[in-house]
Amino acid sequence: MFEPEVWRAVPFHFWSAVFFVFGSIVGSFLNVCIHRLPRGESVVHPPSHCPHCGYAIPWYLNIPLVTWVWLRGRCAHCSASISIRYWVVELATALLFLAAWLKAGEGSAGLALVYSLFLAGLLAASVIDYEHFIIPDEITLGGMVAGFLLSAMLPGLHQTPSIPEALKQSGLGILAGTGLIYATVRIGKWFLGKKRHDLPPDSKVIFGENGVQLPDETIAYEDIFYRPSDALEFHARSVLLGEQSFENVAVRLTPSVLEVGEQKYNPSEITHMEVVTDSLIIPREAMGLGDVKFMGAIGAFLGWQGVLFSLICSAFLGALGGGLTMLYHRLRHQPASTLIQYGPYIAMAAAIWLFWGPELMDWWFRLMTPRGLAPFR
Ligand SMILES: [Zn+2]
């Protein structure tokens, strides 16, 4: 069905419109994923419902882009306001699908479709990372598998007609992506240091089996402790640990020891601890293991060159974004936010590579090649 003749039977911009509309429908589904994946809920069941009153949205009211405007951003049942984010994600996905078609549709409709889905994954990962500081495995590990399989179906994804060559490129991309970012995380050269995380006064924080549950987010232990020496420290108003309770104590948690005041415990023997505090000092760096897997997925689609570009370009974008954020907070006399999400910058860099990578590389090589010498591409 991806024979160019089949697609050329209809005017090019008919398909442009189809991609835009299809993108808005996928965007509507992304909204469901963005809301449910980080909460560990199923993305297929139950069907879309109002997050406030649980009202199941009937199909005739669930039209991407149109519904939100028609209902003026309110639930048809309880009139609770629905975030404009839903509409923005639908529009952004529609525009990304359109852009992917305009970029690749002339040559291969299949490639345009794969680019569309890849960009949708980047968008979902960015929004989830921005809100929850995690990128779900469904997107990262799922993306690695999808990218590898799609490379076999559409070797053109790696600019080659040969399936083995495309699989090699995809595999190298996965290795380069996970390896490079893992090394970067371990070396921890990007944003070293401890991050103080301020919470509303007297917040309840729960230390569960897999992570720390803050009022507005859950942080996995794998994203807190990279080295045996990493420690999470804070002063607790109260601590509830099994049968014991403490008041006004210092708490320190490392991968090997939990100290509550003078007492020491083995963290692996503790399954549940509740504390009340108003700040945590978390030894957190800009990138987490979620970013390692995320870059692996990008490599599966874009190969190692795309990974290398995304790593360098995202560092520039991150520095720029971090600087602007700091300036914004300084101007408004607010304390700067201490947590940095790196995923959206990686996603932006990967999208830039997809659309303009070759042109940017040509420009760079011309800039770097002395006059009179033949460029080495
Ligand atoms: Zn409602």
Give the total of domains.
3
Helicity level:
40-55%
**Helix tally?**
9
β content, as a range?
A: 5-15%
**Sheet with the most strands, sense and barrel status:** 8 strands, antiparallel
Mean pLDDT: 86
Intertermini distance: 35 Å
The side-by-side strand order for the widest beta sheet comes to 3-2-1-8-4-5-6-7
- Ligand names: zinc ion
Catalogue the unreliable spans.
none
Explain what you see.
Strand 5 (244-253) and strand 6 (258-260) form a beta hairpin. Helix content is 50%, strand content 15%. It has helices at residues 4-8, 12-36, 66-70, 85-104, 109-132, 137-153, 163-187, 289-331, 343-368; strands at residues 195-207, 211-213, 218-220, 232-241, 244-253, 258-260, 263-265, 273-282. With 377 residues, the protein is α+β, with helices and mostly antiparallel strands. The protein has nine helices and eight strands. The protein has an eight-stranded antiparallel sheet, with no helix packed on it. It folds into three domains: 1-98, no CATH class; 133-192 and 286-377, no CATH class; 195-282, no CATH class. The protein starts with a helix and ends in a 9-residue tail after the last helix. The radius of gyration is 24 Å and the shape is globular. Bound molecules: zinc ion (ZN). Zinc ion binds next to loops.
